[in-house]
Structure to design on (803 residues):
């Protein structure tokens, strides 16, 4: 403590107007070791009881130390001290009550961040970006620290004396803008873009005069990253960059410039995607010709030419920009793309002696199998293969039936990749299957069925064997989407038998894993870290459970009550999910599965009512909003599809549903979806089972709860019922002399403004007709519209224009 007080005195003397006192203080300060200086300076900055000028001086000196002596001081500090410095700086920025201190500390943090770039331009202080982005709503932090980081990086990029440092600063700027939220970047966009343009022009001249390209490569990527984050806000700067970028692609034809050319192609396509078709179209033809010229030379490119991967990605972005107009370019694009996507990795089983003759530098990676044996795979080309496969998926998604000519060869390429374990990104491609089926549909049912048969067995087997839970969930989701698309009859008896066994195994594994986790919580080694791991495992298991639900939903919605005998092998396991003692996620998804049984199997579902009805009723009052939502949806489909047997349960449910809706916190963010499902369920009971309730008593309350803004699907149900009531001139809804119409206009306007209803569906057309009928009665129309604010008036007009 005494040493710290002496240091404060020293800091004060450094600001003394007496030259002799100040000089002596400077000499004393210079004798203090670097690590000790940093410790004392940090303590001074954080000490709120110290004089403000002393704290400011400490911040200035710390910044100066990091600027002038970073390499001599910082690397010699222990890891604990380095971590403490970073933590203390961020804490001070976040918590200090003095804005002037915070600004000074932002300067220190920016200087440290600038120095913590490795030789490849990677940021060694990722916490500062996370902190920065999480602070986007804190003006003191977000408006000061980003400005300091951006300014420091731009200043370093403009340092013409050290090109390698310039390149590192540009790489750091790329890291920053890639993760930077758009809202955080926009205030600094103009200054950032103008600086980048000045640097790009200078470096382009340098390339022409001296042939140096390192910094220009990074600057081009920086521009691309900024455009990608800024999106439509980049439009005003489009003309500033596009001529120079096209010039680079046209003229950077030498072999040593191929990486620059590839990055520039990437930059042009990202800018085009950011600014949109309207702004990009005047240049689209010229850009496409440049890409086509490169594409025609594709066969002359070496396998490791960096332009290949940039070209493949650029074509996909051009497809997103041009939409259906891109189809004309497929004959040129698809050949090289399929060639890259078809790359087969070189693999080998090696003993120790073979291993000595090979190295990872040759592009091989090895996994030790024991017994002096290793499995080796040559990774060259795998990244390009993954990119090419993703681009094929992109074309299928964007072009749909326009891609039909290529669906067969792409399916034959993709299906075997369900067992491709050599690259993570390739394993995540199963979701292409339903997209490819959509493309193939235009050729008729026979062609579509042949394609599905080629996929189906492989997908089911992959669900049964895939060990990675993330990949497994993708495969299960894709399979469910395919079933929905193909419809009734797409699964034969053998498929059902195999699928039933697999799903039963997944559910049994789910319960077993829960038991194992509970056992680990009783273990003597149990602590917070173990609990964190167990919760991660639980989340993975629940996610697989959601995909089991997806598959069952697809099966029930396509095959209806015909699959109930098959479902009975899973019945007891689903019943186990909704037991009161089970975790809320189990109960939620168990109820969702029974919701599907009720909705799609109609009255036939009632034979299983003894298993789910009482838990469903009790779940309407559950503490978990997710469980309440699933239960409320079940009541709605019970009324709509369930038949006579469910009538008393619809009556019983009404007061429970109303209780949820009228709870004080029913519209809180965490509760609103459950509440809206309850409102929809009450509407469905009144609409489809009016004998179960006194409709006229509930109707005024129900209308007052509208519109639904979060659950778009249920919003359509409520609006359709509202149309029924209005079209039948229901006196309760319309009120005496149509007095309730202004309120109804407000409900419709809010629904349309919040996109709860779309302008092109039948529900919107019915609502627009209601409005048009009022429009012809001048006084009533004026009364209804004048009660709306400007936003709602515009919504009404937009609805009339689109529906």
């Amino acid at each position: 403590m005494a040493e710290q007080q002496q240091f404060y005195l020293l800091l004060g003397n450094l600001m003394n107007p007496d030259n002799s006192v100040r000089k002596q203080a400077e000499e004393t300060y210079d004798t203090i070791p670097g690590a000790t200086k940093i410790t004392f300076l940090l303590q001074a900055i954080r000490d709120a009881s110290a004089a403000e000028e002393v704290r400011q001086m400490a911040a200035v000196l710390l910044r100066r130390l990091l600027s002038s002596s970073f390499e001599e001081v910082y690397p010699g500090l222990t890891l604990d001290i380095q971590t403490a410095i970073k933590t203390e700086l961020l804490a001070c920025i976040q918590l200090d009550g003095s804005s002037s201190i915070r600004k000074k500390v932002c300067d220190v943090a920016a200087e440290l961040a600038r120095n913590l770039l490795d030789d490849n331009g990677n940021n060694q202080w990722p916490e500062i970006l996370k902190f920065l982005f999480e602070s986007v709503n804190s003006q003191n932090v977000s408006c000061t620290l980003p400005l300091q980081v951006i300014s420091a990086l731009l200043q370093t990029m403009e340092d013409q004396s050290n090109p390698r440092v310039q390149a590192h600063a540009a790489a750091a700027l790329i890291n920053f803008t890639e993760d930077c939220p758009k809202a955080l970047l926009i205030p600094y966009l103009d200054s950032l873009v103008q600086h980048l343009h000045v640097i790009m022009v200078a470096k382009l001249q340098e390339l022409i005069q001296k042939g140096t390209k390192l910094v220009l490569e990074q600057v081009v990527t920086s521009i691309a990253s900024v455009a990608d984050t800024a999106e439509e806000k980049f439009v005003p700067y489009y003309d500033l960059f596009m001529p120079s970028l096209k010039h680079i692609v046209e003229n950077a034809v030498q072999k040593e410039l191929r990486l620059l050319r590839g990055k520039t192609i990437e930059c042009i396509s990202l800018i085009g995607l950011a600014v949109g078709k309207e702004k990009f179209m005047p240049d689209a033809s010229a850009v496409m010709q440049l890409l086509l010229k490169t594409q025609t030379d594709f066969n002359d490119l070496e396998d490791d030419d960096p332009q290949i991967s940039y070209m493949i990605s650029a074509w996909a972005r051009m497809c997103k920009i041009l939409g259906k107009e891109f189809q004309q370019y497929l004959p040129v694009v698809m050949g090289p793309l399929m060639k890259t996507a078809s790359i087969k990795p070189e693999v080998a089983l090696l003993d120790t002696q073979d291993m000595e003759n090979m190295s990872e530098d040759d592009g091989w990676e090895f996994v030790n199998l024991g017994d002096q044996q290793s499995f080796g795979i040559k990774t060259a080309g795998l990244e390009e293969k993954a990119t090419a496969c993703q681009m094929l998926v992109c074309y299928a998604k964007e072009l749909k039936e326009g891609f039909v000519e290529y669906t067969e060869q792409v399916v034959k390429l993709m299906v075997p990749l369900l067992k491709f374990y050599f690259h993570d990104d390739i394993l995540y491609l199963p979701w292409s299957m339903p997209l490819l089926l959509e493309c193939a549909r235009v050729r008729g049912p026979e062609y579509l069925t042949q394609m599905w048969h080629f996929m189906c067995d492989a997908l089911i087997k992959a669900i049964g064997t895939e060990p990675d839970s993330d990949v497994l969930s993708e495969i299960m989701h894709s399979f469910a989407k395919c079933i929905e698309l193909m419809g009734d009859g797409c699964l034969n008896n053998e498929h059902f038998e195999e699928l039933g066994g697999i799903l039963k195994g997944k559910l049994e594994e789910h319960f077993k894993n829960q038991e194992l986790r509970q056992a680990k919580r009783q273990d003597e080694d149990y602590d917070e870290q173990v609990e964190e791991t167990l919760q991660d495992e639980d989340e993975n298991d629940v996610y697989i459970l959601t995909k089991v639900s997806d598959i069952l939903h697809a099966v029930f919605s396509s095959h209806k009550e015909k699959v109930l005998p098959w479902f009975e092998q899973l019945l007891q396991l689903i019943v186990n999910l909704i037991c009161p003692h089970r975790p809320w996620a189990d109960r939620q998804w168990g109820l969702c599965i029974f919701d599907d049984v009720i909705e799609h199997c109609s009255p036939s579902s009632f034979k299983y009512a003894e298993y789910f009805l009482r838990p469903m009723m009790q779940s309407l009052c559950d503490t978990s909003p997710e469980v309440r939502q699933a239960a409320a949806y079940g009541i709605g489909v019970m009324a709509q599809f369930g038949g006579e047997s469910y009538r008393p349960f619809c009556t019983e449910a009404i007061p429970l549903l109303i209780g949820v809706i009228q709870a004080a916190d029913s519209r809180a963010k965490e509760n609103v979806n459950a509440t809206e499902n309850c409102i929809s369920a009450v509407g469905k009971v009144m609409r489809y089972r009016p004998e179960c309730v006194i409709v006229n008593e509930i109707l005024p309350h129900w209308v007052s709860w509208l519109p639904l803004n979060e659950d778009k699907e249920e919003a359509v149900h409520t609006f359709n019922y509202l149309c029924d009531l209005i079209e039948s001139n229901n006196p309760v809804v319309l009120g005496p002399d149509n007095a309730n119409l202004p309120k109804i206009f407000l409900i419709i306007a809010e629904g349309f403004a919040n996109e709860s209803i779309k302008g092109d569906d039948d529900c919107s057309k019915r609502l627009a007709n209601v409005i048009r009928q009022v429009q012809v009665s001048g006084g009533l129309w004026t009364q209804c519209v004048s009660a709306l604010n400007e936003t709602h008036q515009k919504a009404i007009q937009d609805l009339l224009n689109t529906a």
In short: Residues 671 and 776 are 41 Å apart (CA to CA). The two ends are 75 Å apart (CA to CA). DSSP finds 41 helices and three strands in the chain.
